[in-house]
Design goal:
Elements: H1 11-23, E1 29-34, E2 37-42, H2 44-52, E3 60-62, H3 68-80, H4 87-99, H5 103-110
Parallel strand pairs: 1-3
Antiparallel strand pairs: 1-2
Helix pairs in contact: 1-2, 3-4
Length: 119
């Protein structure tokens, strides 16, 4: 007998669905409190796969609310190892990271011992 297929699942959700069906949830999703509920920050594919499997609960890590900039960094870090991100997504994250960064801060990061040119 063949393996069940989730209804209306994308290819990436299908892959996640199959993994969860065979091995269970290996990495919990990450949520932040929003009022008396939670907002999903990381794990959209896992959450979607759980919904396709008609699961009622999912393991989650609850973290304190973050700034939008930090949320983007966390999301970027979650996705960069899994797949090659579209160029525009990568540039958007880089722009966000450098928007509030000064040349002095970059220099301190690149030259923590104070060596080289000072900006």
């Amino acid at each position: 007998m063949g393996q069940r297929q989730p209804p209306n699942a994308s290819d990436t959700t299908q892959c996640c669905w199959t993994s969860i069906e065979n091995f269970g949830l290996i990495h919990p999703v990450i949520v932040v409190p929003k009022g008396n509920r939670y907002r999903l920050l990381v794990g959209q594919r896992r959450f979607s796969a759980f919904q396709s499997l008609n699961r009622i609960t999912i393991h989650a890590i609850i973290i304190k609310p973050l700034t939008l900039k930090t949320e983007r960094i966390v999301s970027f870090g979650e996705n960069i190892h899994r797949r090659k991100l579209p160029y525009n997504d990568t540039i958007a994250v880089c722009e966000e990271l450098f928007k509030d960064t000064t040349y002095q801060a970059i220099n301190r990061f690149l030259n923590p011992g104070g060596y080289g040119n000072k900006a």
